[in-house]
Amino acid sequence: MEVILKDDIQGLGYKNDIVTVKAGYGRNFLIPKGLALLANDGNKKVHEENLRQKAKKLEQEKNDAVKLAEKIGDLGLELKAKVGEKGKIFGAITTLQVSDALKEKGFNIDRKKISFDGDIKVIGEYFAELDLHKEVKQKIKILVIPEEEK
Fold first, then answer.
1. Total number of domains in the chain
2. pLDDT (0 to 100) of residue 150
3. Is 149 a residue whose pLDDT tops 70?
4. What percent of the chain is modeled with pLDDT above 90?
5. Are 84 and 142 in the same domain?
6. Are residues 61 and 92 in the same domain?
7. DSSP string, 26-88
8. How are strands ordered across the β-sheet holding 76-81?
9. Residue 6 per-residue DSSP state
10. Which domain, by its residues, includes 33?
11. DSSP SS3 for 64
12. For 59-97, how does the pLDDT look when each residue is reduced to its tens digit (9 = 90+)?
């Protein structure tokens, strides 16, 4: 009996795989639990169309991420921070501050998709990585400068 898996099942296969199982296992366990569909001609056609549409959607998302990475290019951000002795920042530069600075430049990137190599606690030059897609990453330069005192 052939079935189309709806979820990953350890020892059997991954989601969207078409696998052959014993009739009793498929009819009495997989199908009633909603883990699989019977792989008849109609379900196979629907399954193939769904995979084709999903692949097209994923390709479009990747292309959008590549275009965004090209637009960002070698963008540099200047972030101002209150500074104490020896150039130490009061607190640290956060991904939220970087996200806000990117919004001012016209790029709407969620702070959860921004990462640093380490903490930014001293004035200087740093790099942040933007996770635009699982296959598309972009580095930007961040220059931390002291805030002007009034």
1. 2
2. 54
3. no
4. 55
5. yes
6. no
7. IIIIITTTTSEEE--HHHHHHHHHHHHHHHHHHHHHHHHHHHHHHHHTT-EEEEEE-B-GGGE
8. 76-81, 136-146, 124-133, 114-116
9. S
10. 2-68
11. helix
12. 999 999 999 999 888 888 898 888 887 878 888 899 999
Residue after which a domain boundary falls, among 68, 93, 118: 68
- Read off the amino acid at residue 134: K
**pLDDT reading at 35 higher than 60:** yes
Tell me if residue 17 falls in helix, strand or coil: coil
Q: What is the mean pLDDT of the chain?
A: 90
Write the CATH number for 21. Answer: 3.40.5.10
Two structure tokens written together for 102: 């990117």
The label of the residue with tokens 């169309």 reads: 49
Amino acid at 33: K
Give the Cα separation of 50 and 56 in Å (integer): 10
Q: Please say whether the beta carbons of 17 and 7 come within 8 A.
A: no
Phi-psi region of 106 (alpha: psi -120 to 50; beta: other; left: phi over 0): left
Cα separation, 57 vs 79, whole angstroms: 36
Q: Tokens 């702070």 appear where?
A: 111
Rounded Cα distance, 105 and 115, in Å:
18
On whether both 33 and 87 belong to a single domain, the answer is no
Rg from Cα positions in the chain: 25
